[in-house]
Specification:
The chain is α/β, with parallel strands linked by helices and 356 residues long. It contains 14 helices and 13 strands. It folds into three domains: 168 residues, 3-Layer(aba) Sandwich (Rossmann fold), CATH 3.40.50; 75 residues, Obg-related GTPase Ych/YyaF, coiled-coil domain (DNA polymerase, domain 1); 83 residues, Beta-grasp domain (Ubiquitin-like (UB roll)), CATH 3.10.20. A hairpin with an 8-residue loop joins strand 2 and strand 3. It binds guanosine-5'-diphosphate and magnesium ion.
Length: 356
């Protein structure tokens, strides 16, 4: 899973990025730009994985990972060049919106106004999509001139769809809220429109917690989520030992790490589920889209496992944690044998049997 972090200058993007990546940051240049785009990986916190470690006592526990890109932006005329390339490749976008009032941190605009920034970012994303749409519409028009009948028909259909999306965008409706015929889904996904991507809005509240107007910031609708945290506080907490961190959070009345929440909401936004494997004394978490068949889930681990798939032995995390051991689950008949087409559920603990 890859997530592009966007937001206006001084909103806290880089701070949040470093907190999520906990120091595991690489610089990557996309295209020929002078400034690097930073990428980092974060482990996906999952309490179930921790307790599987306690039950199974493996040599190694490996969480699933998510990759974040820190994409500086906010030029006012849409995303372009290498930034656009990075964002188009992302599965979801995370918009950091500044709400914290800190006189020592300059603001590029006259005043802190999260509601305005949410609207401005929507416009920025829409501008990027409009530029792509316009280029494509022009090219289609040129192609139609020399095209034969069947090809011309499909170009006409595509052009009608793109024109409709463009009209919608110009009226302020993001592509993710627009309807397109099912048979155009492939065409549409090829464009990687930014306003079609799932969007997680993270309001950076500052250390004092949410101020007024949070409810106005929350943008809604399918494919969007909204949460709040203090990027600086989360960053500082990553410097503490896990015990100290928990103690601090408890003393502040924070039940959950803001970073864990961001990861959890991202998974939900992308309709991903987690399953767990135990192989060669390693317990490991994986993520796949909801309704992934077992044989495809096996393929995530190794292509050989997909090719030689025989069956999957499945127990739910809840059953396993209740029984206390895999052997006990087997005895109680809670270990199920499932075939290729079984759709993997969140929390499944799976052993794949396969021919090599
Ligand atoms: N007071 C306060 N300052 C913050 C918070 N998050 C970020 N900052 C500060 O805001 C400034 C800009 O943050 P940065 O992450 O570089 O923003 P970016 O331009 O969006 O990448 C830095 O000085 C941060 O320390 C926060 O939660 N509270
Ligand atoms: Mg930055």
């Amino acid at each position: 899973m890859e997530i592009g972090i966007i937001g206006f200058p001084q909103s806290g993007k880089t701070t949040l990025f470093h907190a999520l990546a906990r120091g595991r940051v690489e610089s990557a240049s996309q295209g020929s730009g002078r400034r690097d785009v930073h990428a980092g990986t974060a482990r996906m916190a999952d309490r179930r994985l921790d307790s599987l470690g306690d039950i199974i006592q493996p040599d190694k526990v490996t969480p699933a990972e998510v990759k974040y890109w820190d994409v500086p932006a906010g030029s006012g005329d849409g995303f372009g060049g290498r930034y656009l390339t990075v964002l188009q490749g992302a599965d979801a976008l995370l918009h950091v919106v500044r709400q914290f009032q800190d006189p020592s941190v300059a603001h590029v605009k006259s005043a802190v106004d999260p509601v305005r920034d949410v609207a401005d970012m929507e416009a920025e994303l829409a501008l990027s999509d409009l530029a792509i749409l316009e280029r494509r519409l022009e090219r289609i028009e040129a192609q139609q001139k020399g095209a034969r009948a069947p090809e011309r028909d499909s170009l006409t259909r595509e052009s009608a769809l793109l024109q409709r999306l463009k009209d919608g965008l110009e009226q302020g409706v993001p592509v993710r809220r627009q309807e397109a015929p099912d048979q155009m889904a492939d065409v549409l996904s090829g464009y990687q429109f930014l306003t079609a991507k799932p969007l997680l809005t993270v309001v950076n509240t500052g250390e004092d917690g949410p101020g007024d107007g949070m409810d106005r910031v929350a943008i809604g609708g399918p494919g969007t989520e909204c949460t709040s945290l203090s990027a600086r506080l989360e960053m500082e907490l990553t410097q503490l030992s896990p015990d100290d961190e928990e103690e601090f959070r408890a003393s502040m009345g924070m039940t959950e790490s803001g970073l864990d929440r961001v990861v959890r909401m991202s998974l939900r936004l992308l309709s991903l589920v987690s399953f767990f494997t135990y192989v060669s004394r390693e317990v490991r978490a994986w993520t796949v889209p909801e309704d992934t068949p077992a044989v495809k889930a096996a393929g995530r681990i190794h292509t050989d496992m997909e090719r030689g798939f025989i069956r999957a032995e499945v127990v739910s995390f809840d059953d396993l944690s209740e029984c206390g051991s895999l052997a006990q689950c087997k005895k109680q008949g809670l270990l199920r044998l499932e075939g290729k087409g079984y759709s993997v559920k969140d929390g499944d603990v799976i052993t794949f049997l396969f021919n090599t």
